[in-house]
Sequence to fold (91 residues):
Amino acid sequence: MLFVGGSVLYYAISIPLIVQESVKADKAGVQGEIWRGKYSSFMRTLLYLAVAPFGVFFSLVLLIGSYLDEQTCRRRFLHRLMITYQQRRIM
Fold:
């Protein structure tokens, strides 16, 4: 649940920033700096679209890894508990 909320919050905050940068670049392009304005904005947006899915991918990898680690820790705990229980019954 926290993973989904974090992803939604990330995109909800970052997309308006990209749009705001695009508007600034368009204004700069109107003032004569067309090469620094529009194309720079396009490249930033392209970079954002290329990098943003990697954040989701790495988050999923961490989420799956933490789940598997927790599962292993629980098995180890139950295994030690059963060994202790069996040793007490033998004595």
